[in-house]
Backbone:
């Protein structure tokens, strides 16, 4: 078992090798790429599970976590250690992440079929195999993505964590823009990278300040979270402009939190995540469930001692975190109520659920945050993959219907494809509808009978998300967060989250109703086939965890059930918390949060079923939109935040860059440079003129004078005696005039 | 009595000159010149690799030194040697020179003899600057390096080459004059032209005014070369007009001469003036990072964009050097200890990290921007334009080119796992410890860099649907008519892959490289600590 821990660093390696193998050697072999990728994920999964289970069954693991060095980097007289760690927190992640990665890989191998909007003739090989022309590239990218997430999980220091975090950022950029021929996909990719980069820059500042201020100067978790270091960080003060005197630990905590805001798409940096739905659906599942967005919360979990100690010296930091989390939970839930795109609803739901986790961190609920992170990863991956299966089915349904209508071979001509854009747009009171859009829930309905496996697993996921009582995983983890909020005396957090939970149940039921219940509203929905086994089997496997995943965390004080099953996750994590000098706190059982939790979950589902239980009729607008009018529209348009950002930050950045470019090249700097150059030329021309007119003028002048003198003198030398005499007389006269006249004048 | 090691550097230094002369004397055919040049350039490369392994990092200090009389009337000696700072840079010079010669052999077909002569001469002068430990020698090589680059731009350059070449030449010459005055000042103060001895003698110690004058004399000389904001505008013009290999060498090595000079001469020779003016260096560096990045966003010419990105990236070097300069005297160190409430050791380690970051950035920027300029050249040979608005959709048309450009661009962006990240990280680590506000200002550049890399380069050139009407005339790299963009061919791949591999290797495991720099940073800090 020791041996198993010592190879933890290997966990991220197989996907990386698969990435290299695919881009370098297998890029034309689609089947081979998929096999290599899945094989690598399987290896990582086996290894990850081995390590996870070894740690689960190890006595006193929390008090003796593993932390080993791989290599060091010299930093002056000290060294920076790169290595790997295993402790209860990341052992849980090692259970969840590689499993979901494996499932998503298998699913992807079935999902990435030849896209309907492309022409088969242009990509004959891909068309013949029925696979996306860039199938191999996709496999390579998701392998790199898996490397990023697994590397982040096993990192033993914050810097390494950050590095893999950024690698995931790169992959999300590449994958969101995977179908970059579509303009929205391109834009979404750039938006995702740059928005998270803003958070990352702040995170980097926080990380570096932590590195600077820690004693000893380090980023290794085991060295950061010593009592001495946390105490000295909590008690040293920094004076900032605008903010005045703050504790170092608060400043660092807030900056690091900004990184989580970006990555976990919390308000105000949430805007990238819904747009990221432009990527292929398995990517959405990866980004939104198993990996990237969870990484933001996992960062907070990793850095939790910083937050705990920051909370001891000033309450503001934790309140800020709790506020952002709770606000985002509600804010995103309202938007989700008014979306039509099946994946966008899930995207906003993800933002909202991440808000729960962030709020839990803000209330000091370490176990609850991590617990919800894990259960959410399972059921949200299930929902995303399910929605991908739905989209696939509806797309095929449309395709099938067209084939029947036109009797063609299903191969659109380019002109036909272009004509499809915009031809089917219907303006409606509840937003424009493209009647051929396989992602718009208004084009669905009644899919449960067409796609039973997808449908039932989706419903399981949906119930887990709503927190359907007792059975589902989501109930237990969400209930724990609500219990903490109530117990911790943070009433406003509790009620905000409770309201968000109601909306969650409501929009989930709306989604289930619109998609699976009632009657099919388009030919796409009525012809949709069930997806292939490589897609549905992962759904079935994940749905198991969406249910049983919650049973490991039933509070021992829960009525009737409490104590039947031990609260395993708490027992597993608490020794580790004590190891990090934290004091685990068990919320006492209160009837109120449980009652509220039951009421909102069942109430939301009930109200949703009442309104959407029979789906919509064809052409019927959303009843809630009619009821709420402009409020619904504001939710539908996402509070116009995208427009606001575009009008301010984006335009300002572009304006500033153009201004500075002109400043550089036209107005100031080069103007001065060229001006100096011109002045130099002007000066040299002046000098040259001086040279020509003054210096040369003098020289020439002397010549001219002597020349003229010569001319005059020559006049004298004409050889005639009369002239000589005349000159003699003249000279005499002048002499007399000059000498004699003054004499005469003196006499007078 | 002399071991072969004592002449290694002389052979390394003069071999390119020999090669240049051989090209002139025996270059009877283009083919002979090209092949001979490539083979000849392998010797300095091999020797520089030998130096990497043979240099004793534990022992440190100047090694492989050679001292001889040169111009006794002037008191100028032939003194060359290498330490942890210069060895990686010498390797970089030799590597980029070989790759440039190899690549040029594929694309240069006019006035081949002159071109290869000048390229060898350029390598000779650059190696000379990195090796010289005597001011006169240093200055001579410094000046020689201008000449081949002037002709490379002026003859093989683009449409506006005349203006660019003159601007480059005059700009750097102005800096050189300032430096020459400072060198003379140092000589009259210390009585020696030996760089190491002069630093040990501490010219103008105790006289801040004179020391500052000398400091600024050197600074101008080096800042023009780096180029530091606001002396940078020769760079975009020179880069845009220069032939591909010229841009590679210019960005890859010539810019580093300036930063190298700051580390080799300014900090050790004028510690008091360094402390006094450190905030200026830091400010100029941070401004360059942000300013350069913003200007990049507005560019429409791919090569000019990458040129401005060099301004931004060399700002990190200045930031790191400036941050370390703040504690160059024991007094400054003591006051930093008070101000920040950290131990003297922690402060010194921060300075070492700032210096490591700056040196790493010099090396990595050479690799990364060198690669980027090669890639721009590769596309220019086919499209004959660099206008960003005319490209699009190349990701599917030229996947190999896309993959390499993506790697290089993300390395330039500072993506962890690729070489550029460590330099940024350590620079900021040092700067945040010593000059936190300017460092914080500099981090704006991190975000804006992502904007221009993704929004300007990747999106405009590679993404979207390829549209044949946008740019109808394409050729192959040999200049034949082509239907559309063609992917990279063999010699281009061979040029690129060593650089790409280096980005990955140094990104994942930077320790071997940092070992050299850390050693010399430690020595610099020990040197100023022991001055009283």
Residues:
């Amino acid at each position: 078992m020791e041996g198993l821990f010592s190879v933890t660093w290997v966990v991220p390696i197989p996907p990386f090798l698969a990435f290299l193998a695919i881009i370098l050697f297998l890029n034309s072999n689609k089947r081979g790429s998929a096999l290599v990728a899945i094989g690598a994920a399987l290896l990582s999964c086996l290894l990850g599970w081995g390590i996870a289970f070894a740690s689960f069954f190890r006595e006193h693991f929390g008090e003796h976590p593993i932390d080993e060095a791989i290599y060091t980097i010299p930093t002056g007289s000290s060294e920076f250690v790169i290595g790997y760690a295993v402790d209860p927190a990341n052992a849980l992640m090692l259970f969840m992440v590689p499993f979901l990665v494996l499932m998503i890989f298998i699913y992807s191998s079935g999902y990435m079929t030849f896209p309907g909007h492309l022409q088969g003739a242009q990509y004959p090989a891909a068309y013949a195999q029925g696979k996306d022309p860039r199938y191999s590239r996709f496999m390579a990218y998701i392998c790199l993505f898996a490397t990023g997430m697994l590397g982040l999980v096993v990192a033993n220091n914050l810097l390494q964590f950050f590095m893999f975090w950024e690698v995931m950022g790169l992959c999300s950029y590449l994958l969101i823009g995977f179908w970059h021929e579509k303009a929205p996909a391109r834009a979404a990719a750039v938006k995702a990278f740059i928005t998270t980069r803003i958070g990352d820059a702040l995170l980097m500042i926080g990380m570096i300040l932590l590195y600077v201020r820690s004693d000893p100067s380090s980023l290794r978790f085991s060295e950061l979270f010593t009592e001495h270091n946390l105490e000295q960080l909590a008690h040293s003060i920094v004076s900032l402009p605008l903010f005045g005197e703050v504790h170092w630990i608060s400043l660092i905590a807030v900056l690091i939190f900004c990184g989580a805001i970006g990555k976990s798409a919390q308000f105000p940096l949430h805007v990238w995540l819904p747009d990221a739905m432009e990527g292929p659906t398995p990517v959405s599942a990866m980004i939104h469930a198993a990996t990237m967005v969870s990484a933001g919360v996992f960062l907070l979990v990793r850095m939790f001692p910083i937050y705990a100690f920051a909370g001891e010296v000033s309450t503001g930091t934790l309140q800020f975190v709790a506020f952002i989390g709770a606000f985002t939970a509600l804010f995103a839930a309202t938007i989700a109520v008014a979306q039509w795109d099946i994946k966008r609803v899930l995207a906003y739901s993800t933002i909202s659920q991440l808000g729960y986790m962030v709020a839990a961190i803000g209330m000091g609920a370490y176990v609850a945050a991590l617990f919800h992170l894990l259960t959410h990863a399972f059921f949200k991956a299930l929902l995303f993959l399910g929605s991908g299966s739905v989209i696939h089915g509806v797309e095929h349904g449309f395709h099938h219907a067209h084939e029947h209508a036109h009797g063609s071979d299903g191969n659109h001509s380019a002109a036909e494809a272009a004509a499809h854009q915009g031809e089917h747009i219907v303006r409606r009171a509840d937003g424009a509808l493209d009647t051929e859009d396989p992602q718009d829930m208004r084009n669905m309905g009644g899919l449960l009978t067409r796609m039973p496996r997808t449908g039932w697993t989706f419903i399981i996921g949906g119930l887990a998300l709503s927190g359907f009582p007792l059975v589902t995983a989501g109930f237990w983890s969400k209930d724990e967060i609500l219990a903490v909020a109530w117990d911790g005396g943070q009433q406003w957090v509790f009620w905000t989250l409770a309201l968000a939970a109601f909306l969650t149940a409501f929009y989930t039921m709306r989604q289930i109703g619109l998609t699976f219940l009632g009657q099919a509203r388009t030919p796409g929905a009525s012809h949709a086939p069930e997806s292939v086994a490589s897609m549905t089997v992962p759904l079935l496997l994940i749905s198991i965890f969406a249910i049983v995943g919650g049973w490991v965390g039933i509070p021992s004080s829960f009525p009737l059930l409490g104590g039947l099953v031990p609260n395993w996750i708490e027992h597993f994590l608490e020794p580790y918390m004590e190891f990090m000098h934290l004091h685990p706190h068990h919320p006492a059982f209160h009837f109120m949060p449980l009652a509220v939790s039951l009421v909102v979950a069942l109430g939301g589902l009930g109200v949703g079923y009442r309104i959407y239980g029979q789906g919509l009729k064809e052409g019927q607008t959303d009843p809630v939109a009619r009821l709420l009018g402009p409020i619904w529209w504001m939710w539908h348009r996402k509070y116009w935040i995208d427009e606001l950002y575009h009008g301010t930050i984006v335009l300002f950045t572009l304006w500033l860059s153009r201004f500075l470019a002109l400043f550089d090249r036209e107005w100031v700097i080069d103007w001065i440079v060229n001006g100096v150059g011109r002045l130099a030329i002007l000066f040299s021309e002046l000098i040259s003129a001086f040279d020509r007119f003054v210096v040369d003028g003098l020289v020439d002048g002397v010549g001219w004078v002597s020349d003229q003198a010569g001319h005059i003198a020559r006049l004298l030398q004409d050889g005639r005696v009369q002239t000589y005499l005349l000159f003699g007389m003249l000279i005499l006269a002048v002499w007399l005039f000059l000498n004699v006249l003054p004499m005469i004048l003196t006499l007078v | 009595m002399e071991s072969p090691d004592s002449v290694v550097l002389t052979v390394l230094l003069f071999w390119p000159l020999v090669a240049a002369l051989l090209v002139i004397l025996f270059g009877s055919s283009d083919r002979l010149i090209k092949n001979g040049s490539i083979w000849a350039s392998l010797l300095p490369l091999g020797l520089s690799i030998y130096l990497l392994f043979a240099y004793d990092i534990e022992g440190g200090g100047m090694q492989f030194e050679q001292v001889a009389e040169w111009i006794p009337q002037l008191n100028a000696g032939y003194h060359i040697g290498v330490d942890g700072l210069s060895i990686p840079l010498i390797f970089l010079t030799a590597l980029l020179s070989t790759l440039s010669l190899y690549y040029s052999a594929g694309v240069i077909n006019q006035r081949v003899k002159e071109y290869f002569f000048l390229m060898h001469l350029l390598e000779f002068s650059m190696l000379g600057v990195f090796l010289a430990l005597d001011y006169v020698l240093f200055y001579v090589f410094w000046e020689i390096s201008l000449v081949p680059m002037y002709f490379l731009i002026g003859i093989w350059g683009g449409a506006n080459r005349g203006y660019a070449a003159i601007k480059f030449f005059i700009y750097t010459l102005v800096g050189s004059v300032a430096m020459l005055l400072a060198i003379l000042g140092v000589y009259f103060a210390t009585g020696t032209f030996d760089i190491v001895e002069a630093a040990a003698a501490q010219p103008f110690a105790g006289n801040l005014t004179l020391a500052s004058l000398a400091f600024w004399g050197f600074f101008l000389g080096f800042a023009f070369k780096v180029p530091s904001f606001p002396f940078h505008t020769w760079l975009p013009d020179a880069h845009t007009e220069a032939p591909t290999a010229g841009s590679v060498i210019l960005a890859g090595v010539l810019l580093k001469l300036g930063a190298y000079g700051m580390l080799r001469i300014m900090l050790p020779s004028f510690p008091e003036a360094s402390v006094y003016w450190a905030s200026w260096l830091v400010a100029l560096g941070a401004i360059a990072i942000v300013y350069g990045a913003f200007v990049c966003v507005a560019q429409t010419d791919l090569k000019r964009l990458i040129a401005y990105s060099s301004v931004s990236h060399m700002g990190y070097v200045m930031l790191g050097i400036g941050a370390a300069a703040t504690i160059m005297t024991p007094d400054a160190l003591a006051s930093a200890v008070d101000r920040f409430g950290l131990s003297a050791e922690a402060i010194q380690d921060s300075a070492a990290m700032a210096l490591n970051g700056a040196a790493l950035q010099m090396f990595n920027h050479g690799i990364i921007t060198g690669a980027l300029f090669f890639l721009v050249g590769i596309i220019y040979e086919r499209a004959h334009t660099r206008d960003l608005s005319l490209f699009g959709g190349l990701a599917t048309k030229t996947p190999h080119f896309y993959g390499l450009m993506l790697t290089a661009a993300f390395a330039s962006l500072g993506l962890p796992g690729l070489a550029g990240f460590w330099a940024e990280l350590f620079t900021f680590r040092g700067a945040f410890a010593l000059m936190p506000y300017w460092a914080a200002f500099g981090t704006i550049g991190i975000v804006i860099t992502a904007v221009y890399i993704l929004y300007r380069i990747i999106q405009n050139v590679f993404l979207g649907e390829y549209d044949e009407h946008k740019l109808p005339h394409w050729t192959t790299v040999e200049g034949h008519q082509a239907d559309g963009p063609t992917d990279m061919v063999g010699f281009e791949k061979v040029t690129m892959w060593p650089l790409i591999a280096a980005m990955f290797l140094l990104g994942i495991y930077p320790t071997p490289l940092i070992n050299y720099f850390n050693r010399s940073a430690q020595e610099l800090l020990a040197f100023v600590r022991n001055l009283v």
Q: What stands out?
A: Chain B has 21 helices and four strands.
